[in-house]
């Protein structure tokens, strides 16, 4: 069964922190790099960061030093630890494979950064 389930979003003040979780089916998780994506209001979905099967990570410059990607292959779970959040981080956050070879998207989880 193909599953992608994001959770952990919410409303947070600027400078705050959140940790997002992604529960993925083994069919997706076991053989793929994984990634976090986000879509802000009025904008296209964009890549946030990636993580290899072995745990090597990459994040885009906009979140470098603030966001950290991790995964546990025994739990088919990936996380996005977000700190020093800014209003521009407001978006729906999604997880999926990298590259995008899985056509099914989860529901995403809303992150709103506002005072």
Please characterize this protein's 3D structure.
Helices cover 3% and strands 48% of the residues. By secondary structure, the protein is mainly beta. The strands form 2 sheets. Strands 2-10-9-4-5-6 form a 6-stranded mixed sheet, with no helix packed on it. Strands 1-3-8-7 form a 4-stranded antiparallel sheet. It is globular. The chain starts with a strand and ends with a strand.
Kindly list the characteristics that best describe this protein.
115 residues; 6-stranded mixed beta sheet; 4-stranded antiparallel beta sheet
Class by alpha and beta content: mainly beta
The total of beta strands comes to 10
Helix residue percentage: under 10%
Low-confidence stretches: none
Major sheet: size, sense and barrel closure? 6 strands, mixed
Q: What is the averaged pLDDT score? A: 95
The H/E string reads EEEHEEEEEEE
Number of discrete helical segments: 1
Strand order of the largest sheet: 2-10-9-4-5-6
How much of the sequence lies in strands comes to over 45%
Radius of gyration: 13 Å
- Termini gap: 40 Å
Shape: globular
Task: State the gist of this model.
This protein has about 120 residues and is mainly β. About 5% of the residues lie in helices and about 50% in strands.
Task: Write the topology of this structure.
Layout: E1 4-7, E2 10-12, E3 18-24, H1 26-29, E4 33-39, E5 46-51, E6 57-59, E7 67-72, E8 77-82, E9 91-98, E10 109-113
Parallel strand pairs: 2-10
Antiparallel strand pairs: 1-3, 3-8, 4-5, 4-9, 5-6, 7-8, 9-10
């Amino acid at each position: 069964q193909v599953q992608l389930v994001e959770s952990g979003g919410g409303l947070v003040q600027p400078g705050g922190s959140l940790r997002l979780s992604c529960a993925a089916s083994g069919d997706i998780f076991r053989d793929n790099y994984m990634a976090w994506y986000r879509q802000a209001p009025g904008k296209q979905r964009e890549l946030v960061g990636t993580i290899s099967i072995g745990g090597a990570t990459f994040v885009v410059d906009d979140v470098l030093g603030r966001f950290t990607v991790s995964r546990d292959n025994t739990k088919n779970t990936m996380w996005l630890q977000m700190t020093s959040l800014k209003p521009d981080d407001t978006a729906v956050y999604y997880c999926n494979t990298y590259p995008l070879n899985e056509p099914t998207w989860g529901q995403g989880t809303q992150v709103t950064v506002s005072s």
